[in-house]
Design brief:
Layout: E1 16-18, E2 21-24, E3 27-28, H1 29-36, E4 40-44, H2 45-59, E5 67-71, H3 78-86, E6 90-93, H4 96-104, E7 112-114, H5 121-129, E8 134-137, H6 140-153, E9 157-162, H7 188-196, E10 202-208, H8 219-235, E11 241-243, H9 261-279, E12 285-288, H10 292-295, E13 299-310, E14 316-320, H11 329-333, E15 340-341, E16 351-356, E17 365-372, E18 380-384, E19 404-409, E20 412-417
Parallel strand pairs: 4-19, 5-6, 5-12, 6-7, 7-8, 8-9, 9-10, 10-11, 11-12, 14-16
Antiparallel strand pairs: 1-2, 2-3, 4-13, 13-14, 13-18, 15-18, 16-17, 19-20
The structure holds pyridoxal-5'-phosphate.
Pyridoxal-5'-phosphate binds near residues 290, 293 and 388.
Length: about 425
């Protein structure tokens, strides 16, 4: 067993190079691929627990009731949600489906923070039925629809109002959400007005902000957290609860660096505490909503090589048995990855190859140019940093069933999602 070279840094914490090749959670990846088939999502339990614990501990430095709500949109597989629930996280849900997932995984209704820029009556009713702790309003229509449902059930619902403070972040424009013109949230002035004039049945508890995702420079996140208490005080609106969203990025490539999620959360709590002291106001309950920074690095996707060919321009295509059906990030916002061969992860390169997905779109390319050792048909390719926004975005384009998923740790691999069979693809057709 040797220590982990830099090229493998985007892989999960427990990754080792062994005589059998790359191992995660004490399991050789080639063995896991043979046992469960490919494509396969693999999650390292230790990486998930370590990050969840550090964020839960850091936010607990805030007033009682402060909490870390895991963003289910990043990963909603029950086998992982149960781990996060055990670690003391709450749950950020953006649909009736995500509410159902959180409840099935054991989260209490009071631990749910319900989001969405276009919540239907079904979503809002699911929040009410779950006795959700907080619903985050995205606009006045949202408030009126929720109030009408609350009136029917005689319920008073605690709410936050989401505002887009106009703070720009350095991330892909498709995953920035807090700028002027964003489809999410309200302008600060309109948000404050909504909090002052909420329909009856809704109890305004404070503000929510989420600036975007895959943010590697945390300074704007801290800036937003610092600005909100002063804004609430100036507007004279309640701030019992301040939810500063998620958004922290992870390294996808060797050499990229990202802030530690626990340290970042501690910085947010310290910034809010300080500004409240400066403003002479009580510190609100603080909520953070990390997704990617908890599970992103924990995930690795395994593929098998189905074909290798040189084409007209001299480049070499390596075709694998997955692609945009299990990884939409490349097509959606140009996601980049640094895969390795599972059996020979640190062998020297014999040249650059392009890794093609199996779907009928020319853009279904997982990696357009990567140095690898000589690749053979049947080799297993391991793509790191695929724990967040991969399995949740999986689809059945070309009628390929969605991949299976396993949780690994202490040398054991547990199946947590079955592979979708061809028969299952037709269950909804009538
Ligand atoms: C409201 C809200 N909270 C939390 C998150 C989680 O973000 P991330 O996975 O970047 O931490 C998102 C994702 O975009 C979001 O929209």
């Amino acid at each position: 067993m040797t220590s982990r070279p830099d090229a493998l840094l985007p892989f999960p914490d427990s990754t080792e190079v062994t005589s059998a090749g790359l191992a995660v959670g004490g399991c050789a990846l080639t063995g896991i691929a043979a046992e469960f088939g490919t494509p396969l999502y693999l999650y390292d339990e230790q990486s998930i627990r370590t990050r969840a614990r550090s964020v839960v501990e850091a936010v607990a430095a805030g007033p009682v009731g402060s909490r870390a709500a895991f963003a289910l949109k990043s990963l909603s597989t029950l086998g992982v949600l149960r781990v996060l629930q055990q670690e003391g996280m709450s749950a950020d849900c953006a649909s009736s489906g995500e509410i159902a997932a959180a409840l099935r995984a054991g989260f209490l209704g009071s631990q749910l923070v319900v989001h969405g820029n276009a919540k239907s009556e079904t979503d809002l009713q699911a929040a009410i039925d779950a006795d959700a702790g907080l619903v985050v309003l995205d606009g006045r229509d949202d408030a009126e629809r929720l109030a009408a449902l609350c009136a029917q059930s005689g319920r008073t619902q605690d709410v936050l109002v989401r505002i887009a403070p106009g703070i720009d972040v350095d991330t892909h424009r498709h995953i920035a959400t807090g700028h002027h013109g964003s489809k999410f949230g309200m302008t600060p002035a309109e948000g404050a007005e909504l909090l002052r004039t909420l329909p009856s049945g809704l109890r305004g508890r404070g503000l929510h902000v989420h600036l975007g995702s895959q943010i590697l420079d945390a300074a704007p996140l801290v800036e937003a957290a610092r600005w909100l208490p002063s804004f609430a005080k100036a507007e004279g609106i309640p701030l019992d609860v301040l939810d500063v969203g998620g958004g922290l990025g992870i390294p996808y490539l060797p050499g990229q660096d990202s802030p530690d999620p626990g340290t970042h959360t501690a910085n947010l709590v310290a910034a809010i505490t300080q500004v409240c002291a400066d403003e002479g106001m009580p510190v609100p309950q603080i909520i953070v909503e990390p997704g990617r920074s908890i599970v992103g690095t924990a995930g690795t996707t395994l593929y098998s090589v189905l074909g290798i060919k040189k084409v007209g321009d001299g480049s070499t295509w390596v075709a694998v048995d997955g692609g945009m059906g299990d990884n939409l990030r490349v097509g959606l916002y140009g996601g980049t990855y640094a895969p390795v061969l599972a059996a020979r992860p640190i062998d020297p390169s014999t040249g650059s190859v392009r890794i093609a997905g199996r779907h009928c779109e020319s853009t279904d390319v997982l990696v357009d140019g990567i140095e690898l050792p000589e690749v053979h048909v049947g080799d297993v390719i391991a793509v790191p940093a695929t724990g967040a926004y991969h399995q949740t975005m999986a689809n059945t384009y070309n009628l390929f069933g969605r991949p299976a998923a396993v949780l690994v740790g202490n040398g054991d691999a547990t199946l947590i999602t079955r592979r979708e069979s061809t028969d299952e693809l037709f269950l909804r057709d009538v």
